[in-house]
Task: structure prediction
Amino acid sequence: MTTTTFSTLLEFPLLESIEPKENLSVPPLTYDTSNLESKVPPGCMNIIKKMRNEIHDISLENEATKLEIMSAQTKINSLKSILDSVRYENEDLKRNKRDP
Result:
């Protein structure tokens, strides 16, 4: 029994890329909601509408957060550049102080 399990495990490739496959795409699920109200009880329809609104709100928040992150990253890069410049200037001043 152990031999069978071991030989089965060897059949799988050991060095498989864990990178996401770019050419594999799953089409988004689509639902025909045009006549959904006639098939779903009103209480459920209210929940569905609330969920749709919440999904929309979360999507807007997500986009706003992405913009804030990009802005913060830009500020961080700018501050890193300034810090590098100050470090270089500080090292230059130290060298000039030692070598009068």
Remarks:
- Helices lie at 2-10, 36-39, 42-98.
